[in-house]
């Protein structure tokens, strides 16, 4: 990310879209729970069968390793999100840790 690393940004995580949208609304002085009960599509492609969802452990590790820089940026974005509470950041890091444990726990370059 360019700019000073102390700059704060607002963040909407795909997996927590409704909660994050509402937290930004509150941050801007708006109403609580302006968005509720909505189903935001997380995947607008065709429905997948089980064989399309499978990724071998070796392939997953290779993908995580190849995504190391992207994961670094993702973690930085989470930590700079002024609408995210520390437990929100930890929840997303735990979700990342389930997929890419080594990369999720790597020490960030700036800290």
Description:
There is one protein chain. The protein is mainly alpha-helical and 111 residues long. It contains six helices and no strands. The chain has helices spanning 17-27, 50-53, 57-66, 68-80, 86-99, 101-104. It is flat. 7% of the residues are buried. The mean pLDDT is 83.
Query: What is the number of helices?
Result: 6
CA(first)-CA(last) distance: 15 Å
Can you tell me the residue ranges where pLDDT is under 50 for at least 5 consecutive residues? none
The helix content, as a percent range, equals 40-55%
Short structural summary:
This protein has 111 residues and is mainly alpha-helical. The chain has helices at 17-27, 50-53, 57-66, 68-80, 86-99, 101-104.
Question: In terms of topology, how is this protein built?
Answer:
Layout: H1 17-27, H2 50-53, H3 57-66, H4 68-80, H5 86-99, H6 101-104
Task: Give short descriptive properties of this protein.
111 residues, 0% strand, single chain, mainly alpha
């Amino acid at each position: 990310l360019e700019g000073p690393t102390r700059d704060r940004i607002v963040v909407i995580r795909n997996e927590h879209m409704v909660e994050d949208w509402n937290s930004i609304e509150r941050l801007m002085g708006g109403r609580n729970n302006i968005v509720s009960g909505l189903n935001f599509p997380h995947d607008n492609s065709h429905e997948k069968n089980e064989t399309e969802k499978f990724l071998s452990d070796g392939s997953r590790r290779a993908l995580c390793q190849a995504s190391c820089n992207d994961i670094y940026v993702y973690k930085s974005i989470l930590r700079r999100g002024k609408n995210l509470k520390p437990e929100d950041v930890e929840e997303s890091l735990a979700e990342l840790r389930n997929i890419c444990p080594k990369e999720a726990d790597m020490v960030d370059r700036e800290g």
